[in-house]
Amino acid sequence: MTDFNKKNILADKSYQFALKIVSVCKELTSQKEYILSKQLLKCGTSIGANVAEANGAISNADFSAKISIAYKESLETKYWLRLLKDSNYLKEESFESLFESADELSRILYSILKSTRIQPKKDNW
């Protein structure tokens, strides 16, 4: 849960990433590639949407659940990016840039997930 007066780097990064995904998907559909690009569009923009939901979470469990979904969407995004590259729809340069951004988001989300899911053990003294 965040304070809306503070800059939220994850929200900013995931939003900027979503804009890049939208742009790439527009390009892919202009090449008449509709199926894979639709999958990429859904998961690539879902990362930021779930981060936005996490920022409005009503509990720590709710926050953690939304971050978990965002993390899984980032993994799925990397899968579709690889598939698009290997099927020659996505150029190496575009792939590298997008994959690096998706991977950065994955690492950030996983770090947050670890810190919200692992509770320190309390001593029963």
Automatic annotation (TrEMBL):
NCBIfam families: four helix bundle protein. Pfam families: 23S_rRNA_IVP (PF05635). It comes from the Bacteria. It comes from Gramella jeungdoensis. InterPro entries: 23S_rRNA-intervening_sequence, 23S_rRNA_IVS_sf. This is Four helix bundle protein.
